[in-house]
Amino acid sequence: MPSTAPARLLLLWDIDHTLIETRGVGFAIYQRAFPAATGRPLVELAKVSGRTELDIMSETLRINGVEPTDEAVGRLAAALVQGYEDARDELGTRGRALPGAYDTLAELATSQAVFQTVLTGNLREVARIKLEVFGLDRFLDLEAGSYGNDHQERAELVAIAQQRASERTGAEFGNEATVLIGDTPNDVAAGLAAGVRVVGVATGKTDLEELRAAGATWAIDEIKAVTRLLLARLSTANPSSQQHADEE
Ligand SMILES: [Mg+2]
């Protein structure tokens, strides 16, 4: 690992309603995976917005009358991953990348000062499939990401991603150098609890006012505004950094 890695900004992207929408495919997969894993129909799905999959799976099992043992959760997780694997075409047809997501990730990926990965409630393999289907995986270091099967609490995923990103790059990513980007009050709360800045994007069900009220450092209504926001910040964040000149 290099000991003099350049100062960098770690971007932690949420996936659903920030970068992509499954437009009902995610729910359809749950409806197929749940009986496959438990032998029972899915009567009710727990609220999913902004939560980790470990959290969603446990509650969904419970409210459908199945004890959420490690074994039951593991079976459901495996069925969900298989369900997404089988539904790649369906996801690509019915779902979509959100407007500007591809271009924004692509543009940020050209900056040496930016290191991009995900912080998502999705299971690791499900996250990979969702991003691959829309061609977004090429801009993100998914090994450095943190996922809904890493921890039940979303806020805990921030430190996990920082640690993994440091291991991947040799650079230290403290809270000052970390920005989380997401669409729900849960994303904002997770970032604030962990002590990092949060860009709230009103591309899901939460509007700008609600994102600001939740405490988002910045609230924007389209993903492409992220580039301007972050590159402007980079140009002033580390006056002593060699990256500074690159961003002028
Ligand atoms: Mg989301």
State the name of the first-level CATH class of the largest domain.
Alpha Beta
Strand content: 5-15%
Mean pLDDT: 92
The helix-strand sequence is EEHHHHEHEHHEHEHEHH
Query: How are the strands ordered across the major sheet?
Result: 4-1-5-6-7
Spans of 5+ residues with little confidence (pLDDT < 50)?
1-5, 238-248
CATH architecture label name of the largest domain: 3-Layer(aba) Sandwich
CATH domain topology of the largest domain: Rossmann fold
Q: What is the count of structural domains? A: 2
Pfam family, one: HAD
GO biological process, one term: DNA repair
GO molecular function: phosphoglycolate phosphatase activity
Keywords: Hydrolase
Structure description:
Keywords: Hydrolase. One of its GO terms (cellular component) is cytosol. One of its GO terms (molecular function) is phosphoglycolate phosphatase activity. Pfam families: HAD. The protein has 248 residues and is of the alpha/beta class. It folds into two domains: 9-21 and 97-247, HAD superfamily/HAD-like (Rossmann fold, 3-Layer(aba) Sandwich), CATH 3.40.50.1000; 25-93. 47% of the residues lie in helices and 11% in strands. It has helices at 25-38, 53-63, 70-86, 88-94, 101-109, 124-133, 156-169, 185-194, 208-214, 225-237, 243-247; strands at residues 9-13, 20-21, 96-97, 114-118, 178-182, 197-201, 218-220. The strands form two sheets. The protein has a five-stranded parallel sheet with strand order 4-1-5-6-7, sandwiched between helices. Strand 5 (178-182), helix 8 and strand 6 (197-201) form a beta-alpha-beta unit. It is globular, with a radius of gyration of 18 Å. The chain starts with 8 loop residues before the first strand and ends with a helix. Residues 1-5 and 238-248 have low confidence and may be disordered. Magnesium ion (MG) binds at residues 14, 16-18, 50, 182-184, 204.
